[in-house]
Every structure is written in structure tokens, then in C-alpha cells.
Design goal:
By secondary structure, the protein is α/β, with parallel strands linked by helices. The protein has five helices and three strands. A three-stranded parallel β-sheet has the order 2-1-3. The two termini are 15 Å apart.
Length: 145
């Protein structure tokens, strides 16, 4: 297995599991993807709307269980990709040894924007977030190619 990517969001139940599932589908076996959360409760399932939105795209994240960020997770990956600039900044402050491999998702292309947190939003908000993540992942894929 080649490149290893860790997606980060706040609770590891919405954005980063969606990014993980979509990236796994988009990048296939060439890249190993996983996710974690800045403030995650260990073992929580992905949100029901995240599950539903990805199921609409034939991506199954039903086995996902949340986990909190830890240094050992960062050690074993090539890229740490948070969903926001603020998360990137916090990770770089707490784990300065991984600055060189931390870059937020919106910074891989021309967008330079954060992935909005859909938590508490409608199914349509989750669809919009998944679409946004998908577009940013295509830019990431193009950059990594």
C-alpha cells in the first residue's frame, strides 16, 4: 500500500468520515485513508445523515467508529488533512513535529476554503458538504498524481 492519508474534523462523525469514504472510493487501493477527530468521542458511529448521503453515492461508511487524534496516528501517515484552517493551526501547535505533513483540505486546490461543518443541519446540508468534500478531493487527487 502506498500513500497514507488521515482526515481530521471535530467529532469524527460527519466531515472526516465522509472524506474518508469518498477518498477510498475515488483513490482506490493506491492510497490508504483513515480519519479522526479533534474532540471525538471514541467509538461513535458516523452521523445518520452522513451515512445516508454517502449511501446515495454507493459508499458505505457504516463500519466507521470515531476516534480522537493522537500522536501515534500522525506518526504512521504521510498526510494529515484537517477540514479547516483552524484545525490545521491547532494541530501544528499541539504536534509541531508533524507540521511538514499537515495541510487542510481546501488548501490543495484553488479554493482556499474550509469544509463547513454540517452537524445539526438538514440532509440537504450534508449533501452540500459531501459535494464540497468530493470537489476538494478531486483537487487533492490531481495534486497527488
Amino acid at each position: 500500500m502506498g500513500l497514507k492519508i488521515l482526515f481530521i474534523c471535530t467529532g469524527n462523525t460527519c466531515r472526516s468520515p465522509m472524506a474518508e469514504g469518498l477518498a477510498r472510493e475515488m483513490l482506490g487501493d493506491t492510497v490508504q485513508v483513515s480519519s479522526a477527530g479533534m474532540e471525538a468521542w471514541e467509538g461513535a458511529e458516523a452521523s445518520c445523515y452522513a451515512l445516508e448521503v454517502l449511501k446515495e453515492q454507493n459508499v458505505d461508511i457504516s463500519k466507521h467508529r470515531s476516534r480522537k487524534i493522537r500522536a501515534d496516528l500522525f506518526e504512521e501517515v504521510d498526510w494529515i488533512i484537517p477540514m479547516t484552517r483552524t484545525q490545521e493551526k491547532i494541530i501544528r501547535q499541539i504536534f509541531p513535529q508533524y507540521i511538514h505533513k499537515t495541510r487542510y483540505l481546501g488548501d490543495w486546490g484553488q479554493r482556499k476554503q474550509d469544509v463547513r461543518d454540517p452537524w445539526g443541519g438538514s440532509l440537504e446540508v450534508y449533501r452540500q458538504t459531501a459535494q464540497e468534500i468530493g470537489e476538494m478531493l478531486r483537487e487533492l487527487r490531481d495534486h497527488l498524481s
